[in-house]
Structure formats: structure tokens, C-alpha cells
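Pasting as-is:
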Amino acid sequence: MGVIQRMDFSSINLNLLRALDVLLEERNVTRAGRRLRLSQPAMSAVLRQLRDVLGDPLLVRAGRTMNLTARAREVRGPLRSALRELEQAIRPSAPTELDAELRICASDYVTIVFGPRLFPHLQRLAPRLRLRVVPPAPEQQVEVELADGRYDLTIGAIPPSRAGGLRWRELMRDRYVCLMRRDHPAIARAEEGALRRDDFRRYRQIHVAIRRQDGSLSSDLLGSTDDAFYVGSHVVVPFLIGDSDMIAISAETVADALSSHVDLVRLDPPGGSAVMPVGLCWHESRTTPASEWLMEQIVEIAANVGHA
């Protein structure tokens, strides 16, 4: 029978538990460090500390990936539950009598992905709270308007600069997908669920370009710079490609939300699945109890949305 190691709880604090939660979710030291805003060496040091405290390697390399040990799988669920219960215990109570209007700068992606969950949630908890979702402006303008107080927060896939009091918090990770009509000729040539690169370049595209004058999701992901059509909306894409051979890159959550209305096929982009971080941005000098409470509700909703 093996020796049971006694855990030294005095060496564990909330930051260490949060780091453990992120490491077990990401299974990657570098990605976990990005989420916690720690350098790769600092995150590696945290992992070593956790291994010492728990008496277990937690993550073990298997080829190019890291797998959870049996002990890590055992800890993961109770740890996540405990952290959520703690967050709920210290979270400000719902402002049921709050009579105010909050403004979010966000694209239709945010409205269609978060809205069906967030709006009923707010109606139950804060029925007098009014929410105005404003279409996105160019990134630099959004930063100025957050600082000026014209918006309470913004949600998007492109992290703004963190200079001048701006703060960013990742909410979830969506996945890029290629959308096309169901009988598109490229589908039969797909390789392991991914669109071939030559097909991606052969067929003209609809580019989703939000908050920007140049580039799009397609050019970000694959360097595509053709002169096809540019739109500032995810939601219109399925309707525009339904009767054509054009291809568009959008988000998997948008495809899910619209799947009951339009009959489209989704494939991974050439090279396989790619992740799109989605986050909150706000200005630290402009937060109020109401806006802080709203952001916590959005974080909670986002935990049940992301795919990646």
C-alpha cells in the first residue's frame, strides 16, 4: 500500500487554487499563463509549487500534448465547484431596485450569442436595469469612449490596448468555422473535417470585418486578402452565402444559434481548428457597483457558452 501524503493547506491560497483551475482547464502552461497574466517561467514555477503541494505531477506530457493525471481529474470538478461557490458568496447582491441604464458596445455576435441567456437573467434579477447594446465603432474610438464614460463596457474578439486604465478579461473561447451552402463542391474534398487551403482560396469569400478599416477574420487567420465582399456583421453571413459558392469565416456559436433558421455546412479552416478569444473591456476609472455587477453576470453566462 502506498504512503498517503498529507497536504500542507497553509501553503495554498486563493490565487494558487485559481491557477490550478486554469492549468487543468488549459492543459498548457503557456496558455494558462496568458489567462493569468503570468510569464511562462512564472507559470512553470506555479505548476511546480502545485505539484509539491499536491504530491502529484498533475499534467504529464503525451507527445505534443499534456494530459491530466488521475489525481488531477479527481480534483478538477470539486475545485471548480468550490471556486464558483466562493465567487457567488462574495459577489455583490443583485441590485433589484436599481433604476439605471448601462451601455455595452458590442457587435451582433455578442447580441445573438449572449442575449438569449443574458437578457432573461437580468430581467429576473434586476428588472429595473436597462441595457443598451450599441454597434461597435473602430477600436481606437471605443477605447476613447470607454475612458470618456460613453460606454460602460465593450465585448469583443479583439483585445483593445490595456494602456490608460483599460482592463481586459477573457470570457470564453469560440472557434472559427468556415460556412458554406450544403451542396458546396468543396465539401466533398474536405480533409478530416477541414476545408482544403486551395479550396479556401479558389472560392470568393465574404469577409467579416468589425471595428476595423482593413483586414478581416479571413485575413487574420489565413492571410486572405481577396477583393470579395466585406460586412460588419456575423449574423448576415449565412443568408448571403446560402445560394452561392462563396465561403465565409464566422464563429461556431453564431452557426449554432442560426442552425435552426438556415441550412449550412461548417468545416474547420485549412490547417484545422482555430480559437477566437472573446473578452470584456472596461475602464477602471469608470466602474460603478452596477457595471461591476453586470460584468460578473456576463462572466457567469459566458462560462456556459464557449466551445473551445
